[in-house]
Amino acid sequence: MSDQLTFDWPTGVALGPDDFFVSDTNARAFTMLCTPEAWPDRKLALVGPPGSGKSHLARIFLAQSEGQMLQAKDLAADFQPEATSVVVEDMEHLPRGSEEAMFHLHNHLRNTGGTLLMTSSEPPARWQIALPDLASRMSATNVTQIGNPDDAMLQALIMKLFADRQIAPKPALVQYLTLRIERSFAAAADIVDQLDRAALAQGRKINKSLARELLDKQP
Fold first, then answer.
1. How many degrees, rounded to 5, is the angle at CA 17 between CA 192 and CA 84?
2. Angstrom distances, CA of residue 46 to CA of 33, 54, 61, 83, 92
3. Which parts of the sequence belong to the AAA+ ATPase domain (predicted)?
4. Which CATH number does 149-217 carry?
5. Does residue 110 register a pLDDT over 70?
6. Residue 87 above 80 pLDDT?
7. Which of 28, 114, 143, 218 has the CB geometry, 3.0–4.6 Å to 109, for a possible disulfide?
8. pLDDT in tens, 7-34
9. What is the mean pLDDT of the chain?
10. CA nearest to 210, candidates 199, 197, 200
């Protein structure tokens, strides 16, 4: 936290719990995760593209609720929740054989006043669920979405990705990248990785010149 705060974060980006960056692109999702008592039927689907911070938000929710987390692909038929709040990650990958277990988990939490948070890159209506009773309950789930990053979030994300690699980029480089890469979390992660690898391989500094060379090679 102390190292990251040496950055000059872009205007419009706030630091939330656990250094989660809040801007217009995710403010509603952040607020929803902090107020589970407002969720209809105490269940929520958190939807967003890969790298958008869904897992980070889920961990913030877990820290507040003292709940437990599991991957949808790992949901076993005999699963018994150990907490009243449960997070099921990557619901789009729920195995066909785990649908009945998910159905019982959903009903158990609903009947006991528990809370269910599900994350996915797709909204519930697109989850390939064959069990009709589960499909209907998932389709009725309230959804909050994280969209692609705005300029403020994209700049903060690029600086955070560099900071994770112990790299302090110049503001001019961050602004240059923000204007030239695809506006997505995946694109930000990709260009930071490319720059780090290229700088190490070529013995060069990470700067606008190197970024320009890499971006010019992209289709």
1. 115
2. 9, 7, 12, 20, 12
3. 40-150
4. 1.10.8
5. yes
6. yes
7. 114
8. 555 655 555 565 678 888 888 999 999 8
9. 88
10. 199
Q: Record the tokens describing residue 180, joined without a space.
A: 């030239």
Dist. CA 45–CA 43, nearest whole Å: 7
For 26-145, CATH number out of 3.50.50.60, 3.40.630.30, 2.102.10.10, 3.40.50.300 equals 3.40.50.300
Domain boundaries, the chain: 26-145, 149-217
Residue 212's contacts (CB-CB under 8 Å, 6 or more residues apart) are none
Q: In angstroms, rounded to a whole number, what is the distance separating the alpha carbons of residues 119 and 143?
A: 10
The pLDDT, as a whole number, for residue 18 is 58
Q: What is the DSSP string of the chain?
A: -TTGGGS-PPTT-EE-GGG-EE-TTTHHHHHHHH-GGGSGGGEEEEE--TTSSHHHHHHHHHHHHT-EEEEGGG--TT---SSSEEEEE-GGG--GGGHHHHHHHHHHHHHHT-EEEEEESS-GGGS----HHHHHHHHTSEEEE--S--HHHHHHHHHHHHHHTT----HHHHHHHHHHS-SSHHHHHHHHHHHHHHHHHHT---SHHHHHHHHHH--
